[in-house]
Design goal:
Distance between the termini: 29 Å
Radius of gyration: 16 Å
Largest sheet: 7 strands, mixed
Structural class: alpha+beta
Shape: globular
Order of helices and strands: HHHEEHEEEEE
Strand content: over 45%
Number of strands: 7
Number of helices: 4
């Protein structure tokens, strides 16, 4: 009976809509490229980030950080993805090993993150992100 319940729950879980999947890919790419225009489009005006240090940042602050001279982010892969979708919203997250430079100095951080997405005016935008440092493989 337990296996049947799991199969039923998996079948009922909504798939990630194609337009959301495209927006998630575009957001990851915009972060890597430091693409101000794409970040402006993909982050909601009321966006809030709780970063891995526990500080709260706004849309403007995140864009400032990702487009700052001397800041780079190497392409990354999301491990152990979390995908929760409901009508008009979603949580997309997982674990990523982020590497790059900040102020000319190398950094490396393994973060567990969750991006909350909302579909507003026919387009997906990130409205909230929470990130936490992850120490191991758990």
């Amino acid at each position: 009976m337990g296996l049947m319940l799991i199969v039923a729950l998996l079948a009922a879980a909504p798939a990630v809509p194609a337009d959301l999947a495209a927006a998630v890919r575009a957001y990851d790419e915009a972060q890597v490229k430091g693409d101000r225009a794409a970040l402006e489009r993909l982050l909601a005006d009321d966006y809030t980030l709780v970063n891995s240090g526990g500080a709260i940042e706004s849309k403007a602050e995140l864009i400032r950080d990702y487009t700052a001279p001397g800041f780079t982010l190497e392409p990354f892969t999301v491990e152990r993805p979390v995908e929760k979708v409901w009508p008009g919203g979603a949580v997309m997250g997982g674990v990523a090993l982020l590497r790059g430079t900040d102020g000319g100095k190398r950094y490396e951080a393994r973060l567990r993150f969750a991006d909350v997405w909302a579909k507003r005016g026919g387009r997906w935008q990130v409205i909230y992100t929470q990130a936490a440092r992850e120490s191991g493989g758990g």
